[in-house]
Queue: 2 jobs
Job 1
Amino acid sequence: SQQGEEDPQALSIQEGENATMNCSYKTSINNLQWYRQNSGRGLVHLILIRSNEREKHSGRLRVTLDTSKKSSSLLITASRAADTASYFCATGGGGSEKLVFGKGTKLTVNP
Amino acid sequence: DTAVSQTPKYLVTQMGNDKSIKCEQNLGHDTMYWYKQDSKKFLKIMFSYNNKELIINETVPNRFSPKSPDKAHLNLHINSLELGDSAVYFCASSQDVATIFTDTQYFGPGTRLTVL
């Protein structure tokens, strides 16, 4: 069954603005990963945060994890047109032997 | 160099036909996967193989049969194609099944299957 639910489903912003996407999940997890999918392409791993971590940074990406609320957020700062893509969270663990992906947030960054 | 490759990129076929999708990874990974992404972008795992052995088999019709001739290849054969099989199929790989939750998964470019 589906684990992660991204919110919002779609987000449109101007270049230079920050973009925040949220992911909520239902069961306990070992870690949570974020992936990006450009139109017509495969998914690309962005960042992984473990269940005992609260925040992680990678370049312009900042991920937070709140296990008490079963939620995570992905913040992209100073967005660029090239950030236009769908972003998926994927959860691992919680008794499941696989990564379970959410439905994704479609981000459009307008130049 | 392409890490995970799939062929074909597009596949258009009639209902009832049998078709195959091939996947190869040159990353030296032990674990490979097939995912199905539907029209609403929902990505669902179908199968996972570790070193040629099936380890995950989701509730997938037995018309779908994966085959792994070696750990670098995982092919997907689909019999008696139905309209509902239309989707994008992604192959992926990761280092090791023991670290399935912490490994990055590397995805292929996808195969868009259209059943008419």
Job 2
Amino acid sequence: EIVLTQSPATLSLSPGERATLSCRASQSVSSYLAWYQQKPGQAPRLLIYDASNRATGIPARFSGSGSGTDFTLTISSLEPEDFAVYYCQQRSNWPVYTFGQGTKLEIK
Amino acid sequence: QVQLVESGGGLVKPGGSLRLSCAASGFTFSDYYMSWIRQAPGKGLEWVSYISSSGSTIYYADSVKGRFTISRDNAKNSLYLQMNSLRAEDTAVYYCARDPGGLSSSWGQGTLVTVSS
């Protein structure tokens, strides 16, 4: 099983700041990594697929990078609505998907 | 637009059974493989099961193998999850998802299953 480890567990920032979230895979997942945003009581919302491609309707302030085992989600300038939990997910080992444990982005 | 609507969740006693449904609309259901993914209260996401577009290929997570059965009815645009021998640790919101993490990814809003005496 491919294990995804996200860091940090919690990130405290202020609106307007830059957020950098990390996801590390236990083995290479090539570029088959996605990022989701989840708010309380809602389903996960796809932000990035295949490491660096923004999903439909996702603002340009969200960007993804990386390949192999190390990936980053960057939010260039935080908006109030961006404070949520973020998950990474691999589909390299399709169809056995795995998810990271999540990073909570909270208002400082 | 793509829509996935889960139903069938509820409260069930340990050892009991429940059948979840997922109604798909807005796309050609028979063209897509589908998965069930769950999220225990306050926890992260866990993939549960996969079914190919025709239904001929199926996979399960080890945690549910032998207890859960995934199926689909392409004529009814519906996905199902039959859950037997339920345990407290199966308590979660269950999501149906198309192509999780891919270009055509789409998730439903989820249905809550609570296993408790």
